[in-house]
């Protein structure tokens, strides 16, 4: 049972912590209150390794509470009495290393209990999102009684050499696994296992609690229990610094595969994927089984088999199958197509009921089970999988008289869920990296649909932690390979503004104001003589539109005209828009001069960009002053920044949205194109602009893809933006003031005649219902204490908390 009591982590830090500066030195003195140690194998290296840890504890009675703090470097799975309890920790960096707090009492019994954990490190094969200092494991009991579980030299450890990395394609999500069953310590997590040949764990160092986190918690506590404090001088540049994770453990639940689509080398038998019977593969057989989940998922494959000594079982995972031309086509079709993708390999030892589960989950719709049998018969008892993702709850809903919109809602939410684990992710199959551009949209979706802001808080903090000395965030974080996209730093400012409007937490927001100022100052230095942004370093990515993609040249792909040499209207207007949002934040928090200066500068750049890039012939803003290229992106940003008057904005953005001559926005940037339509007063056009999402459904996609066909990723959460817009644009629900203290509701129903929706609010739920017969009947229910305004065809009506009902023409 995971503890949801925030006071617990606060209490732990204040109960145990103290920090100070040494006289005449820059190092900080950290308190090491925990009696546990980070432990590892005596021969631990920082390369690829898999370590198993075990300890038997003896309890006089079954406890009602047994709280521990747990972490590992880089990943662990924890077992009690053979049962899997949790996996973690959430990804971070060495200055911000997460630990979780969990009450394990319900899993313990009177007498002997076996605590066990597997900790693995992919070393040089590690995913780009995974940072590591040294392979290790850590448990600290909450109180003296629970310190029985502390990690120290009383734990035993075993280096599992049955694993080897398997890189079958150029993924950056870590290697596949090959397991040599004859060397695997089967049933190591159970009490009955004999660990006499295991060695005692090595204590590598004491855990260090992060200084800044301790200070913040300390200020909020009025009474602190007096204890004897031990102080230790720590080299802060070399050790992991622990912080309590604000994230829950990922959800895990078993699910069966839907069906077998094809089999070669054997007679079709689906009993083993439904768990109703065995599938026997004779010796010397070569069998390929194509299995379909019927929808894309993120899950741990789970293969249970007996026998098969000398055999090779290969699992290949794919989002979709490919035809001879390398295209995917309709995702439901398999004729003339083959599978290619990441793989795991299991080499059975011939034993009974051997269970294969990889350490890390896989993303797939299709799985090919290739059994190359040689010496012995194989019996497959069951092949299913364990779904895993961030535990979002769908608290919102959206219904209309157009069923396809509900399908878009369902597929969009499924997409968003698969792209969230211990961070937001661009995609679950290819990268699993938290990019700012993707994350801003994902965070809006998750706040509107689930109301859970923890992953958004975590993301904002991690991008703050990624700041480089130049004054920009990294484009993606955590990451062991640095990448900087200057426009993404600007979208981080938008994320903070979004949070400010939708959640009340001034202390959280104010800590980022200095970094917002640094980002804007960094851009300011590149303003050239004509008051547009000149040539800037790093990768100035904007969008994966087809006209900006250069195969094999990512460093110049996704960038508009003017990005390499300067004078890009798109990059300049993105900067203007970020300054406008930052000005609102600075003004609200009393930094009036900063707010005024930003607004003044943004107005100059906006006006000068219009003067130099407006083209009277096309009636559009060009991408550069030479007026050779025109894009939907430039028109959208001009509208969003208020570059045009309202009548001009309406005409221009309507023409831009319908033009095929302009460089087109991809699914990602269509979010901003459709926001521009809304700002220009054309929100009723939103529904008619959903044809890309309808096309994806017709192509058999169960998630929304990265871009239009041909696409690399079939699951990219920036394309799930309709889940936000169905509530914010169609239903019209938006924050009317910071902290969502008031509500503005302005629906954009298009040709729909019935719409209803509900979304979570920090103080309750917001419900809207619009139905048309001869007149429109409007029902709006606001949480207690929340008021707002309703806008309808130029009219403004005050809303009170509770039920509001209107009849409108």
Structural class computed from helices and strand pairing: alpha+beta
User: Can you tell me the overall shape?
Assistant: globular
How many strands appear in the DSSP assignment? 38
> How many helices?
16
Second-tier CATH architecture of the domain at 6-161 and 183-249: Sandwich
CATH class category label of the domain at 6-161 and 183-249 = Mainly Beta
Mean pLDDT, to the nearest integer, reads: 92
Q: Output the CATH topology of the domain at 6-161 and 183-249.
A: Jelly Rolls
Largest sheet: 11 strands, mixed
* N-to-C CA distance: 53 Å
pLDDT under 50 segments (min length 5)? 1-30, 216-236
| Approximate helicity band | 10-25%
Radius of gyration over C-alpha positions, nearest whole angstrom? 28 Å
Instruction: Name the CATH homologous superfamily of the domain at 6-161 and 183-249.
Output: Galactose-binding domain-like
Question: What is the strand content?
Answer: 25-35%
Account of the 3D structure:
- The protein is α+β, with helices and mostly antiparallel strands and 809 residues long.
- Among the domains are: 6-161 and 183-249, Jelly Rolls, CATH 2.60.120; 252-389, Jelly Rolls; 731-809, Maltose phosphorylase, domain 3, CATH 2.60.420.
- The strands form 8 sheets. Strands 12, 13, 19, 20, 21, 22, 23, 24, 25, 26 and 27 form an 11-stranded mixed sheet that branches. The chain has a 6-stranded antiparallel sheet with strand order 7-6-9-4-11-14, with no helix packed on it.
- Strand 31 (733-735) and strand 32 form a beta hairpin.
- Helix 5 (436-449) crosses helix 16, helix 12 (632-640) packs antiparallel against helix 13 (646-658) and helix 13 packs antiparallel against helix 14 (667-679).
- 46% of the residues are buried.
